[in-house]
């Protein structure tokens, strides 16, 4: 019973922090107090302060928006392009499908995070370029899964009936096939979010993400790594939040996929 509402509750807290974080922080996340630098957790600063005397809890809350917005954009971009490509390739089939999948396989062989590190480091595009790279290189894996789901559906009776009555391919794709592959799309969306969350945090840790001084979970890991002896909470807190959010979204994705798939099977039998 507890697990049913615990994950949505925790995710809701993250969403609220991302939207209204600047109004929820106990201190100005950018305010420096060098006299209080590297302080351990206390009643005044629940997670202590960093090396510039900034309140860690305030920066953790304020950094939610930066940490979550990028992964959401990556997940949306990947979902849109991968769904369109997977639907089209799976439904059309033939040489068109083969040509598309050869390109997909070629891009799929490229490691997204490594390419993002190299391109952002060389071109200096920062956070926006990292998001674009992760979108482009994240499409192939999801497109393959959507295509597989379409291949399992395209010869079923409801698709054949739609063709028989003369429905246009676009309507068959988006009005009939898409709802039946939606569980795969939603699960892919959530898993892509998790991958982008970890990937962008890694880029920020390497100094290739958000700008210096901006509150961000990955950036906090890099900024506070020298405080392990005096205030380990300054680094443990963002690491724990990244891990927790990734785990919650992954579990939620599994649950949503199972429920949507079961509902689709029930509709199909009725």
- Helix/strand-derived category reads mainly alpha
What is the level-2 CATH architecture name?
Orthogonal Bundle
* Helix share bin: over 70%
CATH homologous superfamily assignment = MetI-like
Unreliable stretches (pLDDT < 50, length at least 5) are 266-270
Distance between the termini: 29 Å
- Count of separate structural domains: 1
Biggest sheet character: none
Radius of gyration (CA) equals 22 Å
Order of helices and strands: HHHHHHHHH
Number of DSSP-assigned strands: 0
Q: What is the CATH C level class, in words? A: Mainly Alpha
Mean pLDDT across residues: 88
CATH topology: MetI-like fold
Strand content: under 5%
Output the keywords:
270 residues, mainly alpha, MetI-like fold, 9 helices, elongated, cell membrane, MetI-like
Describe the structure.
The structure is a single chain. With 270 residues, the chain is mainly alpha-helical. The protein has a single domain, classed as MetI-like (MetI-like fold, Orthogonal Bundle). It has nine helices and no strands. It has helices at residues 2-24, 56-92, 94-108, 112-123, 126-153, 157-164, 169-205, 217-223, 233-269. Helix 2 (56-92) runs antiparallel to helix 3 (94-108). The protein is elongated and about 75 Å long. The two termini are 29 Å apart.
């Amino acid at each position: 019973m507890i697990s049913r509402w615990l994950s949505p509750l925790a995710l809701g807290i993250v969403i609220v922090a991302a939207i209204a974080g600047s109004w929820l922080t106990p201190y100005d996340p950018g305010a420096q107090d060098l006299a209080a630098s590297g302080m351990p957790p206390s009643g005044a600063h629940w997670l202590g302060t960093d090396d510039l005397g900034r309140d860690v809890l305030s920066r953790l809350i304020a950094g939610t928006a930066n940490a979550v917005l990028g992964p959401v954009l990556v997940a949306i971009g990947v979902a849109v392009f991968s769904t369109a490509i997977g639907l089209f390739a799976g439904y059309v089939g033939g040489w068109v499908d083969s040509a598309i999948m050869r390109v997909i396989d070629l891009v799929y062989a490229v490691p997204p995070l490594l390419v993002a590190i190299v391109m952002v480091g060389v071109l200096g595009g920062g956070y926006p370029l990292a998001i674009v790279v992760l979108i482009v290189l994240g499409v192939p894996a999801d497109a393959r899964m959507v295509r597989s789901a379409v291949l399992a559906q395209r010869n079923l009776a409801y698709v054949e009936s739609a063709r028989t009555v003369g429905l246009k391919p676009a309507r068959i794709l988006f009005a009939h096939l898409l709802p039946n592959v939606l569980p795969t799309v939603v699960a892919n969306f959530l898993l892509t979010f998790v991958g982008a969350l970890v990937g962008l945090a890694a880029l920020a840790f390497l100094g290739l993400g958000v700008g210096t001084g901006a509150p961000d979970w990955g950036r906090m890991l890099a900024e506070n790594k020298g405080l392990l002896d005096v205030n380990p909470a300054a680094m443990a807190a963002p690491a724990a939040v990244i891990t927790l959010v990734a785990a919650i979204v992954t579990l939620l994705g599994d649950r949503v996929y199972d429920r949507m798939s079961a509902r689709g099977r029930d509709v199909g039998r009725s």
